[in-house]
User: What shape does this take?
Amino acid sequence: MRSFETREKKRQERFRNESPTVSAMGRSPTDDKGLRNGHLLAWGCEEENLYPPLRGSGRGGASQFLSARRINWHRSSRSGDQSGGAGPTRNLASSQLACINFMLPLANSPTALTAAMSAIDDDIVGIVDIEDPDTGTSSLVEIEWIGLDHALEGPRHKTRGANSTSIDAFVVAETTSGRRGYLIEWKYVEDYRRDFLLDGNDATRLEWYRASYAASSFRSERIPITAWFYNPFYQIMRQRLLAERMVRNGELGVREAKVVVVVPDDNLAYREGITSPVLKAKFKDARTVEEVVLAAIDQPGPALACLSPSTIADAVRRQCGNELIEWSEYLEDRYGW
Assistant: This one.
């Protein structure tokens, strides 16, 4: 049986070769890596990885949105992305692009965004505009959010999306009990079972996170921080620490904060990838990443939610009807969501 990653890359290859949103040039790479991998666009056509209304450098485009916030696109030599490029990756299976294609169009529709967040919690009454005094920007959806002022890693880390704990998408909602921040981590084809143990940079990690971890809602007295140094747990741990700092400092008036992992239902390699030996032994009854994290936190109310992009997309469709029909059809055609 083919893996989820293999199936989805084939889906993206079909999209590249058949969708009218991809040009003949875009579907015809000439380099060796592009010729061998059907989920890669041709060099020079990377913008075609975006939902069409997000393309271009003008106001409302994804490139302008990221540039105004000094955010770098995720690019990788593994995808054959050319060095020095300023645009998105050519990799059609990119989770950053999946997140942006899904979430950024909703920034223009409070109704649609409220419906999307209501798929997570049923007590949402509205969405709050997020203002970043550092860049002078504001939006109902933020990308690569690190919190106000500086990243979790310290005052020297102020660049969003680079060498710091960044959230793929961030939304603040008004609920019946106050403001709640949603720290959204978007996954697509990620599978950490093959490459889950982090490299030997533990001293730096301990310097950055040990104090925050000791003061957090994690059961730190019973679970050493090093038990979390396995992806995807390492990423989720840092995002929970960021969420708790947000609440502690009252950033943007947030009284609660929840980490939300958006991952397709069929990506069992992620959902069931309990990669940390210590956490696996500690929580023997847990069958998923979500169950492990929730069992490891002492906090009233859920601190983490894991749900599929299809669930969120369907909630938007039910609420908004034809308002976002183009967005809806694009997501279904490209991702099956």
